[in-house]
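Worked problem 6 (solution included).
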Amino acid sequence: MKILKTILLSLTIVLTFASCDKKPSKEAIKFNNAFKDVMAVHDDVMPKMNEMGKLSADLKAKVDTTAAGRTYQKALDSLGKAHTVMMKWMEDFSNKFPYAEDRLKGKSTEEILKETDALKNEKTTIDAVRNSVNGSINNAKTVLDK
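Solution. The predicted structure is:
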């Protein structure tokens, strides 16, 4: 009985180490790279939310019924729309790609390829979000002469 326990323990240890050496497939590498590309853009845009908030406050203080006030309102609306688009994208993205330590565990090669393609679409979308955020910030700064 003691020998059987020793053999089982040894086998468990060997299998544990063998599974740790498993290298990711090329499809998994492509998925991970696509995911990193999307998150890099997100990480670039996210800190700008604070700047948008400050600019919005500056614009709100200047909005009135004059022509200049309406210009401030348009810039404020643009910031609001960009903020909403960013928040919506983050919600949608987290629903499509929920956080998981190992996102690809148990997925077939075909499923990984399909998710990689979906990430490529997300990259296009987050690039558009970045352009919207940057454009609205630049517009607000121009209107405020900053």
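Discussion: The mean pLDDT is 88.
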